[in-house]
Amino acid sequence: AEFEGVFLDFARQQATTETVDKLFKLAEAAKLKEKIEKMFNGEKINSTENRSVLHVALRAPRDAVINSDGVNVVPEVWSVKDKIKQFSETFRSGSWVGATGKPLTNVVSVGIGGSFLGPLFVHTALQTDPEAAESAKGRQLRFLANVDPVDVARSIKDLDPETTLVVVVSKTFTTAETMLNARTIKEWIVSSLGPQAVSKHMIAVSTNLKLVKEFGIDPNNAFAFWDWVGGRYSVCSAVGVLPLSLQYGFPIVQRFLEGASSIDNHFRTASFEKNIPVLLGLLSV
C-alpha cells in the first residue's frame, strides 16, 4: 500500500491473501468504520475516562469543524498555535532575552511519558532533514524525563543558564517526576541568575495556570492543551509543537502537522484494502 510517498510493505508478515480477507471481515464485525467516524465526530470513545479522543483536531485545517461536547474545538487549537508561532518567532529572532540581556539559544523540555517520547521522536527525525537542520543551526534542544540526578546533570551539561530556556510540560502541574525535575532546574537558574530570572528562563505547557503562577512562571507564557488529548498522542499539541518550533521554527512544524492531517484524512476515507493505518492495525492483531 502507498500514500503520498509513504510505502507500506507487509510482504514479510505471515499473512496470506486469505488471512488478510479474514482480517477485513474482522474489521467489519468490530464495526471499525463506525468507530473511526465516532472518533472524528468527538464521541466519547475513551470509555475509561469518558472523554473524546481528538488528537486529529490538533492538526486539522483552520476551517475544519470538530466538535467535543457540542463545541467546535478547532478555533481554540489554532489560537494556541498562533500564540506558539508568535512566541517562537520572538524567541528565535533574539528579541526574547534572558535575565542578563542575552538571547536564548538552548531549550530544555522537561516532561515524562507522552510529554517527552513523541517530541523526542520528531526531534530525532528532523535533525537529519536538511532544511530543518539548517533552521536549527546554533541551537540546542534537550529533553529531560528521568528523575535520576545523573540524567539531570547530563541534560544541563555544558549549558549556560544565561542562554537557556526551560519548558515545563505537565497538564496538571502536579506530575511528581516532572515537578521534581522542574524544581531542580529552577534551582540551577536561580542559583546562577537570581529568583527574578525564572519568568525569563522558564515557560510552561499546562492547563493549571494557578500552579504555574505559584511556581514563578508568568501565566502569559503558559500554553494550553485539553483533556481530549491523550498523553501518547500529544506530540501535535503544544507539548511537541512548542519545543519543536523553538528549535526548528514554526513553519517546519506546521508542515509536520499538515502531513499528520493528510494521514488522518487517508485513515478516515481510504478503503481498508489501501488504508495504511488500518492495515497496520489489522496485521498487529
TrEMBL record:
<dbReference type="GO" id="GO:0004347">
    <property type="term" value="F:glucose-6-phosphate isomerase activity"/>
</dbReference>
<dbReference type="InterPro" id="IPR035476">
    <property type="entry name" value="SIS_PGI_1"/>
</dbReference>
<dbReference type="GO" id="GO:0051156">
    <property type="term" value="P:glucose 6-phosphate metabolic process"/>
</dbReference>
<keyword id="KW-0963">Cytoplasm</keyword>
<dbReference type="GO" id="GO:0097367">
    <property type="term" value="F:carbohydrate derivative binding"/>
</dbReference>
<comment type="pathway">
    <text>Carbohydrate degradation; glycolysis; D-glyceraldehyde 3-phosphate and glycerone phosphate from D-glucose: step 2/4.</text>
</comment>
<keyword id="KW-0413">Isomerase</keyword>
<dbReference type="GO" id="GO:0006096">
    <property type="term" value="P:glycolytic process"/>
</dbReference>
<dbReference type="InterPro" id="IPR046348">
    <property type="entry name" value="SIS_dom_sf"/>
</dbReference>
<dbReference type="GO" id="GO:0048029">
    <property type="term" value="F:monosaccharide binding"/>
</dbReference>
<dbReference type="InterPro" id="IPR018189">
    <property type="entry name" value="Phosphoglucose_isomerase_CS"/>
</dbReference>
<dbReference type="GO" id="GO:0006094">
    <property type="term" value="P:gluconeogenesis"/>
</dbReference>
<keyword id="KW-0324">Glycolysis</keyword>
<dbReference type="GO" id="GO:0005829">
    <property type="term" value="C:cytosol"/>
</dbReference>
<comment type="similarity">
    <text>Belongs to the GPI family.</text>
</comment>
<dbReference type="InterPro" id="IPR001672">
    <property type="entry name" value="G6P_Isomerase"/>
</dbReference>
<dbReference type="Pfam" id="PF00342">
    <property type="entry name" value="PGI"/>
</dbReference>
<keyword id="KW-0312">Gluconeogenesis</keyword>
<protein>
    <recommendedName>
        <fullName>Glucose-6-phosphate isomerase</fullName>
        <ecNumber>5.3.1.9</ecNumber>
    </recommendedName>
</protein>
